[in-house]
Amino acid sequence: MAASSEHVESASTVTEPPELDKTEDGGEPPGPKIRDTPGDIQLEANANTVALHPSRDILVCGDVDGDVYAFSYSCTEGENRELWSSGHHMKSCRQVRFSADGQKLYSVSRDKCIHMLDVERGQLVTRIRKAHESPINSLLLVDENILATGDDVGTLKVWDMRKGTAIMDMKHHEDYISDITVDQAKRILLTTSGDGTMGVFNIKRRRFELLSEYQSGDLTSVALMKRGKKVVCGSSEGTIYIFNWNGFGATSDRFAIKAESVDCIVPITDNIMCTASMDGYIRAINLLPNRVIGCIGQHPGEPIEELAKSWDSRFLVSCGHDQLVKFWDISSLPNMTVNEYRKRKKKDKRMKSLTKKAFGENDFFSGLLDETEKKEEKEEEEEEEEDDSDSGSD
Hints:
globular
């Protein structure tokens, strides 16, 4: 259900500062606290999807009840505000996406409809009823007029929103389409599916090109890395499959991480991406050399549905089954480098924490973990130096 007026009012009144004239010692009252990241946003239902505005501190999420919410976010404590809510979808909202100019919002749903809303007011502008014969699962905006949608039975449609009609309607997957991406030239569309394949479609020529070889497990996500030279696909079995561009038939490499799944992928740099999993962890991963750099954060014990990056690349946002939207500081991530040489790993070593909130800000053991990690790293370096000296004497 859409948020009631009472809910909206309570959300807005939280941000009002307390009326204090003076502190006990007669000085001015302290100003609002500035955090490293915006505070968590509590929702009324599990969110399936989250998207961030391309130029403003605004996010939108869609939930299992079919509602869409827009929030402004801020690092000033208490300054997250609900802007509007929309209850136009009759069933679960599967994905939301902003237009490139940030003025329009598109959403797709289990109710088989495509909606376009005005971002400022949250009002429904365009609805395409029965856009698919089956529930719609994925959405991609190719440009300001063209969008692509994939449904639960493997049908891909490409729409010209100026006419409100599909210019491509193809079914080459045997199961749901989990994710869609497009190359920089807006020519080749890539899809991942629950049937374990990646699909390749030429949207300029409006034709199907090929399916990749079958992988074990569902392919759940797809992204372009290395300036478009590599395609990475996540899977339900925790393996990342790597394809060369124009080598879509077979993988060039694969990388298994210690995770239950790789459900979504967000590129951060040409080499570094963030992934989310059913185990509730957000991992930073380097591509070639393939390494798990560490943990960005977590929704403890709850699957994560989607990740999104802020317009200024400062924050990563996640939504999970705990009915929370969380913010993570990733501003230092682009400066990280990964050595070709793989260090020895000790058994049962925890993932390295890459943000202050990765294991909880108030975790008593976080300091102990940091000290343990430093000690282990020092021991590893000493071992490596010994190995090097031994090998040099042979």
